[in-house]
Request: fold
Amino acid sequence: MAVDIPDDLIETYRKAERVVVLTGAGVSAESGVPTFREAQSGLWAQYDPRELATPQAFVRNPRLVWEWYAWRRELIQRARPNLAHYALVDLEQATPHFLLITQNIDGFHWLAGSRDMLELHGNIARTKCFDEGHRVDGWPQSDEIPPRCPRCRSLLRPDVVWFGEGIPEHALRAAFEATRQCQVFMAIGTSAVVQPAAQLPLLAKRAGARIIEINPEQTAISLLADWSLRGSAAQVLPALVRALGFPTTAIDGARQSETAQGRDT
Ligand code: OAD
Reply:
């Protein structure tokens, strides 16, 4: 599918010194990871993620919440970053000051090679204990689910931000600071309904930045956007990198390893 990138968008991006990107679950959709508000499958179809991703749900039924995250972790471990993630690596390499702020917990941006980034909602691959927040890399084998913290014996949980929990202060401050100073703000694959991330596009607009949205559907940001590129991030972002005339090193590397894997399978 040919993606049309407007000339004035290209010109604006090329002139930008500072670019901030906010990504959501839509960026991982082409990796086969369901977006947050998409219907869940199998055993979990009966549950609304917003009912499970809360401290109250964990206190009420720690085993259910632990097993839901174990299911999502396994789903993510079977998946890989897609071309949207790699295109964002090429953008980061070619942009003087670039910050990627993600709401995703799958770790795919880091895996693809993004480095100037903030994980606002934590990372599903990391585990901590419920009472003290001790980061835990491993725990003694036990039949108890969830397992317990080796240091304080409280129940273990994924190191992700749940509804009603605060975002790590340092990450939030850095996200707001960068957003206030950027010339271009891109919102990619997010419904932009969850605070505080949902405030960032508005903050950028007020600070005089131009707003680019990449999403197949209209969202709360569409009204703010100077450009809304209606399409999949995995198609639009590589087209954007090429239209900007930037090197496509990460994209090409991903394509080559996909081809090699295709030969192996
Ligand atoms: P959502 O599921 O709310 O929104 C996903 C967005 O991605 C939607 O707007 C889709 O239209 C769009 N989308 C779907 N496929 C796409 C594709 N191939 N390319 C581009 N966009 C696509 O997920 P988020 O906005 O990430 O927080 O949700 C934000 C937060 O809400 C999550 O981080 C989670 C949840 O509360 C916590 O768990 C704390």
Notes: The mean pLDDT is 93. The domain at 1-33+81-121+168-265 is CATH 3.40.50.1220 (Rossmann fold). The chain is about 40% helix and 15% strand. Strands lie at 18-23, 97-102, 117-119, 122-129, 135-136, 156-160, 184-188, 210-214, 227-229.
